[in-house]
Amino acid sequence: MRLTDRMGRLGTESAFEVLGMARALEAEGRKVIHLEIGEPDFDTPAHVSEAAARAIQAGFTHYCPAPGLPELREAAARYFARTRDVEVPAERIVVTPGSKPIMFYALLALCQEGDEVIYPDPGFPMYESIAAFVGATPIPLPLREERGFRPDPDELASLVTDRTRMVFLNSPHNPCGSAIGREDMERIADVVRERDLYVFSDEMYWAIRYGAEHVSIASLRGMRDRTILLDGCSKTFAMTGWRLGFAALPQAIVEPVTRLVINSVSCTAAFTQMAAAAALDGPWEPIEEMVARFRRRRAVIVDGLNAIGGLTCLEPEGAFYAFPNVKALGGTGRDLVRYLLEEAGVATLWGSAFGPGGEGYLRLSYANSEENLRAALEAIEATLPGFRPP
Ligand code: PLP
């Protein structure tokens, strides 16, 4: 069957490939510790699930307005004001099933052939994939370990051309765990304003930080109307399976993005939206508790990795990923992932799954119990001396 050219430009997420390999081993009776998948292992807070159940009982089981229920759009506007220092009217919030569709819709609305889109490398693989899919040219912005995996504003400026349309930012960052500080963010905003660009600010991990300040670029002078500010319930509220994302958009693309919603999914499940509104307006203790536990696990995994010969690991400032440097071991990250899965029973992800800049690193998600993390580290330490790159 003839597929369209654009399908050849659409990538995928390798975490699901490793998950498949791990499941095959488990089917043979092998035990595998899963550090490849990026989702909190905590339960959705009880008050959120209860709000969903109440909403179903109350009849929130029908189609609803395409850009979202007023209850959730208003809650999201309050949430951005409170947590990001970004004041936007509820009319500029659009709700989608998960945050990923916003990436599609915003790029479909704003970028096309001839446009360039700058994205972090390593970075969330969907940025490059979707930019290429809509016909734009993705331009990688290297994140270097020497700079703590933070983008260099001068390097960003050097990559901007007359064709550059959009810049993706992701802080705290998947897969590196790095966070962009205020000074760098101000300098990035200067470049964006001077060169008349849009920013796609993916703030999915904003709440999962270990002391670093969160700076939303949308809160900086003149940036609100140039920024697609993306957030969602997946990570902050341990709601990956609920599929709930939302964004504050520049006014000019609210109507086009709403039209894309109507043409694709019609709307987001109404009772899920009521649960999300309860999450955004609700108590913060469950999130504090989750982040405190991630912090303890971060210490276990980072100290454990640094104690293993041939591995070095920077301390991540946010999200729940460790991104150790494995260059001293030789071979490719893919070789090492396969070896660790088969010999140590530990599923990890090769860094180049996040772009060529990730080669020589692995991503380990520490969304797993301290006990499993310790067992994984022991198994890695015991088997690593036997690793011989093919
Ligand atoms: N953005 C980043 C940086 C992510 O890591 C993820 C999920 O892994 C997403 C967006 C997508 O999240 P959602 O479940 O809301 O589609």
Describe this structure in words.
The chain contains 12 helices and 12 strands. The protein has helices at residues 15-27, 46-57, 70-84, 100-110, 126-133, 153-159, 182-194, 251-264, 270-281, 285-306, 333-344, 370-383, and strands at residues 33-34, 93-96, 116-121, 137-142, 164-170, 198-202, 227-232, 245-248, 321-322, 346-347, 349-350, 362-365. The strands form 3 sheets. It has a 7-stranded mixed β-sheet, with helices on both faces. The structure holds pyridoxal-5'-phosphate. Pyridoxal-5'-phosphate is lined by residues 38, 98-100, 124, 170, 174, 202, 204, 232, 234, 240, 245.
What tags apply to this protein structure?
390 residues, alpha/beta, three-stranded antiparallel beta sheet, 12 helices, 39% helix, binds pyridoxal-5'-phosphate
Sum this structure up briefly.
The protein is of the alpha/beta class. It has helices spanning 15-27, 46-57, 70-84, 100-110, 126-133, 153-159, 182-194, 251-264, 270-281, 285-306, 333-344, 370-383, and strands at 33-34, 93-96, 116-121, 137-142, 164-170, 198-202, 227-232, 245-248, 321-322, 346-347, 349-350, 362-365.
Write the layout of secondary structure elements.
Blueprint: H1 15-27, E1 33-34, H2 46-57, H3 70-84, E2 93-96, H4 100-110, E3 116-121, H5 126-133, E4 137-142, H6 153-159, E5 164-170, H7 182-194, E6 198-202, E7 227-232, E8 245-248, H8 251-264, H9 270-281, H10 285-306, E9 321-322, H11 333-344, E10 346-347, E11 349-350, E12 362-365, H12 370-383
Parallel strand pairs: 1-10, 3-4, 3-5, 5-6, 6-7
Antiparallel strand pairs: 2-8, 7-8, 9-12, 11-12
Helix pairs in contact: 2-9, 3-9, 4-5, 4-8, 6-7, 10-12
The chain binds pyridoxal-5'-phosphate.
Pyridoxal-5'-phosphate binds near residues 99, 100, 124 and 240.
